[in-house]
């Protein structure tokens, strides 16, 4: 039994696909099939049921998965003990939101570049739902997103920080500086919003729906930096995390609108899967995120 066979077995179990596992591992599909056949022969059990394109763990396969994950973690632990004093070298794949990518990651990535130049960092941006799905399939080392507090027995949570979500407009907007606004007063203005059905946008839509109202935005886009540029230069309103607009507020380009009847907060959170070996590169990223260098 080889560690590479165990890693292949775990990836197939996560992806529920021999072909997808081969693609992720850089093997041919026939090589993956041979590894699993040899493993099954050694264990004298069938690990997967393969019916057409569907691949699922057998009962023995599910039981063996627990041990395979433990063995891989112990091997990683042993490697870590040997190289603990060496420089950081392993690649790091982080999943995050566009708003966090622009607002919170540059100082962290800058620190890595200055202090650990050999660490290859890959950033993937997606919605919280998509990031969680990728983490569950071991496609990301850790995820860093903004949402209502999330929990699962399968995850380790490393960070949870409250972040207000605010209505913002250009500093010369007629609503800037006006106290005690009602949401109803600004609904007819052109809105530039992030996409529907995700985190804080979802909360806004649900609130309006409960009052038999609907907000049809002028523009929907995932890129918060583009939204900020648009409302800075045009008459319009957006609804964004305070940290995303903080710099524009300091420069006097934008103003927070005092909408008194709808105020919520979301939480910056960092997770990684409990079956994931926590590398020193992950530990350093988490440490820096907690310091909030932005």
UniProtKB/TrEMBL annotation:
Classification via Gene3D superfamilies: 3.40.190.290, Winged helix-like DNA-binding domain superfamily/Winged helix DNA-binding domain
Presence of the UniProt keyword DNA-binding in the record: yes
SUPFAM superfamilies the UniProt entry points to: Periplasmic binding protein-like II, Winged helix' DNA-binding domain
GO molecular function terms noted in the UniProt entry: DNA-binding transcription factor activity; transcription cis-regulatory region binding
Pfam families from the UniProt entry: HTH_1, LysR_substrate
Keywords in alphabetical order: DNA-binding, Transcription, Transcription regulation
Full protein name: LysR family transcriptional regulator
Organism: Candidatus Lachnoclostridium pullistercoris
Source organism phylogeny: Bacteria, Bacillati, Bacillota, Clostridia, Lachnospirales
């Amino acid at each position: 039994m080889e560690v590479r066979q165990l890693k292949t077995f775990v990836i197939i179990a996560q992806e529920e696909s021999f072909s997808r596992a081969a693609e992720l591992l850089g093997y041919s599909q026939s090589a993956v099939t041979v590894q699993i056949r040899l493993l099954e022969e050694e264990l004298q059990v069938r690990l997967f049921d393969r019916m057409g394109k569907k691949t699922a763990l057998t009962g023995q396969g599910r039981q063996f998965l627990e041990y395979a994950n433990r063995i891989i973690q112990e091997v990683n632990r042993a490697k870590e003990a040997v190289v603990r004093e060496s420089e950081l070298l392993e690649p790091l794949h982080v999943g995050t939101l566009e708003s966090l990518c622009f607002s919170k990651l540059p100082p962290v990535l800058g620190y890595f570049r200055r202090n650990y130049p050999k660490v290859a960092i890959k950033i993937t941006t997606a919605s919280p739902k998509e990031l969680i799905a990728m983490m569950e399939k071991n496609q990301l080392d850790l995820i860093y997103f903004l949402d209502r507090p999330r929990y699962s027995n399968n995850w380790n949570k490393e960070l949870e920080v409250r972040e207000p979500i605010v209505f913002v407009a250009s500093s010369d907007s007629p609503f800037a500086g006006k106290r005690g606004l009602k949401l109803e007063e600004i609904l007819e203005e052109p809105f530039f919003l992030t996409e529907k059905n995700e985190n804080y946008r979802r909360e806004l839509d649900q609130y309006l729906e409960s009052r038999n109202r609907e907000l049809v935005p002028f523009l929907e886009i995932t890129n918060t930096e583009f939204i900020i540029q648009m409302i800075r230069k045009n008459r319009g309103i957006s609804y964004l995390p305070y940290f995303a607009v903080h710099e524009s507020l300091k420069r006097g380009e934008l103003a927070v609108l005092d909408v008194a009847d709808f105020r919520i907060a979301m939480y910056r959170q960092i997770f990684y899967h409990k079956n994931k070996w926590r590398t020193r590169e992950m530990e350093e990223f988490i440490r820096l995120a907690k310091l909030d260098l932005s």
